[in-house]
Amino acid sequence: MNAITPITTSIKDWETDQEVRWCPGCGDYAILKAVQRTLPELGADPANTVFVSGIGCSSRFPYYVESYGFHTIHGRAPAFATGIKLANPALDVWLVTGDGDGMSIGGNHTMHVLRRNLDCQILLFNNEIYGLTKGQYSPTSREGTTSPSTPLGSVDRPASPCAFALGAGARFIARGFDVSKHLPEVLKAAYHHKGAAFVEIFQNCIVYNKDRFEDFAAPKGAEDRQLWLANGEPMLFAKGEKGIALDTEKLTLKVVDVVDGDWQAAGVIVHDVTNRSIAHMLVEMPFGPFPMALGVLYDDPRPTFEAAVMAEREKASAGKEPNLAKLLAKGQTWTVTEGGPDL
Question: What mean pLDDT value characterizes the chain?
Answer without folding.
Answer: 94
